[in-house]
User: What shape does this take?
Amino acid sequence: MHKITQYLPILSWARTYNRDTATSDIVAAVIVTIMLIPQSLAYALLAGLPAEMGLYASILPLVAYAIFGTSRALSVGPVAVVSLMTVAAIGNLGLTDPAQIALAAITLAFLSGMILLAMGILRLGFLANFLSHPVIAGFITASGLLIAASQLKHIFGVEVHGHTLPQVIGDLWAHLGQTNGFTLALGTAAVAFLFWVRKGLKPLLLSKGLTPRMADVLTKAGPVAAVVATVLVTWAFGLNTQGVKIVGEVPMGLPPLSTPSFDLSLWNQLFLSALLISVIGFVESVSVAQTLAAKKRQRIDPDQELIGLGASNVAATVSGGYPVTGGFARSVVNFDAGAETPAAGAYTAIGIAFAALFLTPLLYFLPNATLAATIIVAVLSLVDFSILKKAWGYSRVDFSAVAATIVLTLGFGVETGVSAGVILSIALHLYKTSRPHVAEVGLVPGTQHFRNIHRHRVDTCPHMVTLRVDESLYFANARFLEDYVLNRVARDHDLHHVVLMFPAVSEVDMSALETLEELNTRLSEMGIAMHLTEVKGPVMDRLKRSHFLDELTGDVFLSQFDAWQKLGPGQQSNPAKGIKQEGVAAQ
Amino acid sequence: MHKITQYLPILSWARTYNRDTATSDIVAAVIVTIMLIPQSLAYALLAGLPAEMGLYASILPLVAYAIFGTSRALSVGPVAVVSLMTVAAIGNLGLTDPAQIALAAITLAFLSGMILLAMGILRLGFLANFLSHPVIAGFITASGLLIAASQLKHIFGVEVHGHTLPQVIGDLWAHLGQTNGFTLALGTAAVAFLFWVRKGLKPLLLSKGLTPRMADVLTKAGPVAAVVATVLVTWAFGLNTQGVKIVGEVPMGLPPLSTPSFDLSLWNQLFLSALLISVIGFVESVSVAQTLAAKKRQRIDPDQELIGLGASNVAATVSGGYPVTGGFARSVVNFDAGAETPAAGAYTAIGIAFAALFLTPLLYFLPNATLAATIIVAVLSLVDFSILKKAWGYSRVDFSAVAATIVLTLGFGVETGVSAGVILSIALHLYKTSRPHVAEVGLVPGTQHFRNIHRHRVDTCPHMVTLRVDESLYFANARFLEDYVLNRVARDHDLHHVVLMFPAVSEVDMSALETLEELNTRLSEMGIAMHLTEVKGPVMDRLKRSHFLDELTGDVFLSQFDAWQKLGPGQQSNPAKGIKQEGVAAQ
Assistant: This one.
């Protein structure tokens, strides 16, 4: 029973579902639906797909998430970053036939769904942790900028190609002479109006005496108002005959039943993109879901989230959609509007289905410029370069990861940018741990405490040197320690004891063990005994399984103070005390 | 001046060069030359190249290393593993024209030389540390087995293709009916003779009253004896007309001046192989050099070794050779024979040049089977499966890295094997550190020491929980800690203080900082204060650069015992003491 509710979270919340919860959910669903209709059309346009695919991706996937998802506020559907990654992935294929492009998008949703489900079943949610916060922040900022730039072509009414900022800006600049005045006027007006709605409308409505909730609903309806107004203007003045690009015929009706391509070479070409889309989509979705769950002291289960999002993408596949995930802005709206359970998502699906059934003829005269304006205003809120300043102040390593992610995303596209960000974070982390901090320590007078000789006034002893190793020892840093110790010992001809203090060593792998053995042998050849102190339980257990402790020329002390008492200044008369004499080679 | 001797180590040892050192070096060079003549021909055969390229690769590269290398005993030239990697790399190109194949090998040496030089100049020697000992051991063992298997075709006198163990064995089995009896007889006799030389000859010679040095020289001459005997037999009985494959015409004279191909698409195809060859060659060479240097209390400089090996490969390029590195067996022989300086390598080069000038006509009747026998006997000493047992006993993680390296090298070839080994070691390491050990600790009665409550009898307090974090915090493990703390806190409704003990935390990156901030906020929402103790200097410096310490609801204590005195059982009357009240949200 525990198992079933774990994999079908709907069973746990549906039992307590009542009229109050339903009312809250329905109100939230209405608000989200109003917001989602123009957004889903706009993101389909961004993804280079027919507008209706945006609607299709906003129906069944929401129902699937309502059944399998664990977040009570997450709103699933097409989102900006994943749409951008979709157009980049499909662009790599070099397709021109719209039917082929749509099939590729459906196949991408299918692969992404399968990857997410597999990761969920294998409980690999922790893999998302390898995307560091700075890399995600840099990636989202750069993507937002890239998306906004890519939409300028619709505002100017010109043809622009390319997936990188220099390409997009260069191409736009080259075609600026072909700007369509009507399109530019409509687009600029829409952008200005939407910015005003975002910043100025709510205070105005509140000052007119509206209730906050009503003011909120009207604010969310801003994009719908822009759509209605520009559709009317375009229709009334026949602007579509004046070069203003419009959405045109959108098929009326529920999503068609569709299947992905089973062409293995296509799978092969799309696999890496699908993997990136899955991981990025998952990370974006989980971070929103966690933030919102925390506000109500709820917890979400990342591994089950993988299953929920996987199911949503499979649902997108069978209903003619494209890759979906939990959207940031939309989920916050859903939460603020009072959604109590995932059922709100299912009600939203009903709203979008209604739109697909009855409203599509009204979208015929909708200018692409309006949709572009919606996207630009939405994504510019994602752009936040303050992460650069924050990272610079905190750590150069984190800064270089953010900066590289931003530069590479803008300069070489989303897939290169995020892959490079992940690889760079891991490489920098490995580089850091490959040169562990080693501190030479001495006794803080009057205590049993040992601290860094360069930071504190401490007692030391000329015959022994104590080195505190501040990192687990593994293949990448073992040789560094060996070099460090041998260089330290080479400076000092009076030494009889080297004490390695291991309070921070949680792991000694086989490479490190062999290096310690070698270090022991080399020191022993110089007539120096090697001792260990403060070795943790699990590390000691591990060392006991090897011959290392038999070969060690010195002792293992429980605490550094024990070592000091046995080997330190009080014992100067017999500097070799503690060395097992048989282990020391003749000098 | 320091700079110049650093990059030209010859300047430091040449100043003290005298007649005694020269004598030692010349004796060592004679022994190594005797060993190297058949070996260099054999490895060229293994690499799928004309026999003379083996000789060419054993002349100028040795001179280059004598100038730029830091090891006094390393003997550079063609080696088994790099020859195997060369044939695999060139096999990928699908060439059939011998001149094209030779050009590809020369180009591979050039790329490898450039990569090594670049790594040396950028001081990237530490990158070799990312090849863990178990991965190297597994790779060498599997390569030895693969090389031995690949040479069986010469012993049986049949055609066999393939770069993996199943391919080679399967192909050999399929062609066994075409075995040439004469070849098999010669080959088997040579293998048996060489094994006997290795195991039985030296004791025999010593028992006959020869000096150990003389016995050594004669033992090293075993392969030469096998060469002479089989050449004579083949010539006398005209076995080459009976299907015994022979080396045939070997051009007489010094190496030709050659240049690599500058075809960028070829560079592109060879680059990854060249990188793997460089890194593997470097690791093999440096580990031999270090072992030998340690025996004489000398140190080698890994970064300068990159330059030495890079120069050797460039020298191989311009003199018609193929990739070279420091060989294990040969360097040990050089060392044991008394080589004192890298000049021994230069004298060896003179010996091989002499062979190339005058001895090649004598090699006409040399059967390939003899060379194969030389290789088989040499590489079987590399095969050592005991690493599997050792790794299994020590750690499952190390075991899986070795086992995967061996299986993948045998099953999918050298390049896949070693790449997978490296990636797997890093992945396993990251996986381990992504789930850091966290121990709940209590006070050891009568001391100021805190230990794991599950391993020791300790005092605890119902209002505070102390968690010792045993790993640096970074993006991959920060969320794990957050989940751990929140799950621990959820079990216990009486808590007022969570103390995180950081003695093993050497690093808190920006992702981890954000996670700590979030954890602080969540705990504060539950009315629980978060404290830190035993924070290291560098970590504290870092935290001070952020707002974290201002927002922290609790305090930072210098030692865990201070926290215990302030928050522990003695303070039960005021459980919230130590919480900055302003930081705690109303419940």
User: Anything to note?
Assistant: Chain B touches chain A through 63 residues (CB under 8 Å). The longest strand of chain B covers residues 438-443.
